[in-house]
Amino acid sequence: MGNINACVDLQRDGDVAVIVMDNPPVNALGFALRDGLMQAFARARDDAGVRLVVLTGTERAFSGGADITEFGKPPREPNLRQVITAIEDLPKPVVAAIQGVALGGGLELALGCHYRVAAPKARLGLPEIKLGLLPGAGGTQRLPRLIGIEKALEIIVTGDPVPAPAALALGMVEAMLDGPFPAAAVAWARQNATAPRRLRERTDKLEPARADAGLIDRVAAPLLKRARAQQAARACAEAVRAAAEKSFDEGAALERQFFMELVKSDESKALRHVFFSEREAQKVPNLPAGVEPRKVLRAAVIGAGTMGGGISMCFANAGIPVTVIETSQEALDRGLGRVEGNYNTSVKRGSITADEAARRRALLEGKLDFAAIADADIVIEAVFEEMELKKQIFRELDRHAKPGAVIASNTSYLDINEMAAVTSRPGDVLGMHFFSPANVMRLLEVVRGAKTSPEALATAVAVGRAIGKVPVVVGVCDGFVGNRMLARRGAQGERLLLEGALPQEVDRALTDFGFRMGPFAMGDLAGLDIGWRLRQARGTRAIVADALVEAGRLGQKTGKGYYAYGADGRTPTPDPEVEKLITDASASLQIQRRAISQQEILERLLFPMINEGARILEEGIAARAGDIDVIWLHGYNWPAYRGGPMFYAGLVGLPYVASRLEAFADASGDASLRPAPLLARLAASGEGFGSVGTARG
Ligand code: T1G
């Protein structure tokens, strides 16, 4: 407990005042912390016995920035800009002693200090753009004055953190100190902090941009091209340009104006929604107090196919030894050979060193006998999607796995409860649905069976995080959450082709919306035979998709699918053969083709998905609307700056979504397009999906 207020402690070390921020978990600069800082610095200023000041935080965080939960609420003074100005105006030298992270407003706070020192593992950055914002407390004006326009632009527009050694090399910090904080910083300050050096008064680092009018555009162009939050990226670049061309106060005023515009933008609201939903989604819904995940020191994977190999790599990459089980040496060699190939590619690309690849590869061993899973703390089955085969495997796993081991299936839609029922330990059985390629895609649907224990669930979620995934707990149903909603989009995609659209028109509606690829190009990439086999297994039909497969058009792997693929095998070109196949299919169904607008295509693809999401919430298959958004962001490349399907529905307005669904149902006679009861209720009451009760009972 601090002696200034709950978040701030003012200590004395001889003639040095040490101000300590302690607002768990990350020293977010909420009102109490800002108010405490103002009081502490006023005291240090007025205390004649104080010659200089050291400002520090905790080992985890100097400060994680402004308190994002305060955005959109009435502002309370002192605001962050006032706190930073008060520090910069202090007539005594102030040293920021940075451990952990100094991000966003946290780094801006450090830039208001006259010196900065950092611990070797500290990370500094201005990630506001990842929230659809720009640094709003002087960062776009002070950082260029400290390290120059070019480097400042890169840090601000990418939003990427800078590790302490690089920060030292750039001049973001004056020193990197090994010793314990804050003592090491106090000692450094006594030796080096001689005067209050105010960044707002510096201009030498701005000279190159002032001398070369084209510099900013040249540096900004590639950065803006790569940025996902376009509105915020442009604002960042213009604010930094103001630093070069205008006075500090004029630049700061422009930064403020941009911030006030951006904080109200849909793009920023979506990205802030994503930030909190990603964290919320990883909390096991309704976990009883005191339930802890079990330790996972060893893993086993059954099946060394594409998925099994990728899953095994996730564990090896996280430093967890993993045993891969196959039925034959030939299958095992093929699977491990694929893993070897993946690591070699990563080394060639420079994403990991050869030594790191060797270290990871050494953690991965192949075996032909189930007995080898005996000391695994978690076993993940990743064999062919055939229930009888999976049940046979689960009987074996039940025989060989040690007590307390979590036994998971990587199935993408089969019933976990049926698998659990053939074991003596249904409490330890659940689903862990990885997305291909498993060693790349971050989403992990953790499927809670009817009898899955809270410990097993907590263990699977903890392991998911440990191997770098975004684990989201979902319930048992056909397709769980992501694929169940995807099926709705796929059905509409097929209908749109039959009614008059062409693949390139449907795909363009989604790429213009922000997806990297449309559904048909994505189908060609994954292989059209996957969906075809699924439909065969279920006895369902998709006329156009089936016709393509039956004509040998499986997608990129056969050089043609919905599109034709040229020499590079990847660039899709509309194919008159496909257009004829589609128009013939329409004719065979006596469907009068018509021109369909891009807006109707977009709504026909997205609104039935949103409707299915409402049913998923009603049934308790997902605990929170944000969980559904996170699933689509990390499993299906939904554009983050659109927030996710359920967030997007709120932006468009649930009454509008409901009315369009009614219209689609009337036009097609497909009653399943009618608004789900939850959607209709929320549309009528004016509430959003965020108001839906959270976790399942
Ligand atoms: N405000 C409010 N809560 C925050 C927060 C923040 N800035 N940062 C983290 N939290 C919460 C988070 O929701 C979670 O809560 C808990 O802290 C732990 O977070 C004016 C306008 C700091 C690297 O963008 O990148 O400054 O789930 O699980 O993995 O120019 O949090 O436990 O209830 O992520 O150790 C700019 C955002 C803000 C940094 C720590 N700052 N945070 O990672 O823990 S805008 C950021 C992070 C701004 C100024 C502008 C990470 C982290 P709960 P965590 P972590």
Summarize the structure.
This protein is an alpha/beta fold and 697 residues long. It folds into four domains: 2-264, 2-enoyl-CoA Hydratase, Chain A, domain 1 (Alpha-Beta Complex), CATH 3.90.226; 299-477, NAD(P)-binding Rossmann-like Domain (Rossmann fold), CATH 3.40.50.720; 501-588, N-(1-d-carboxylethyl)-l-norvaline Dehydrogenase, domain 2 (Orthogonal Bundle), CATH 1.10.1040; 605-691, N-(1-d-carboxylethyl)-l-norvaline Dehydrogenase, domain 2.
Question: Could you describe the 3D structure shown?
Answer:
The structure is a single chain. The strands form four sheets. The protein has an eight-stranded mixed sheet with strand order 13-12-11-14-15-16-17-18, with helices on both faces. It has four domains: 2-264, 2-enoyl-CoA Hydratase, Chain A, domain 1 (Alpha-Beta Complex), CATH 3.90.226; 299-477, Rossmann fold; 501-588, Orthogonal Bundle (N-(1-d-carboxylethyl)-l-norvaline Dehydrogenase, domain 2), CATH 1.10.1040; 605-691, N-(1-d-carboxylethyl)-l-norvaline Dehydrogenase, domain 2 (Orthogonal Bundle), CATH 1.10.1040.50. Helices cover 49% and strands 12% of the residues. The longest helix has 21 residues, at 329-349. The mean pLDDT is 95. β1 (8-13) and β2 form a beta hairpin. It is globular. It has 697 residues and is α/β, with parallel strands linked by helices. It contains 29 helices and 20 strands. Bound molecules: (2S,3S)-3-hydroxy-2-methylbutanoyl-COA. Residues 25-26, 28, 64-69, 80, 101, 103-105, 108, 127-128, 131, 133, 135-137, 139, 276, 279 line the site of (2S,3S)-3-hydroxy-2-methylbutanoyl-COA (T1G).
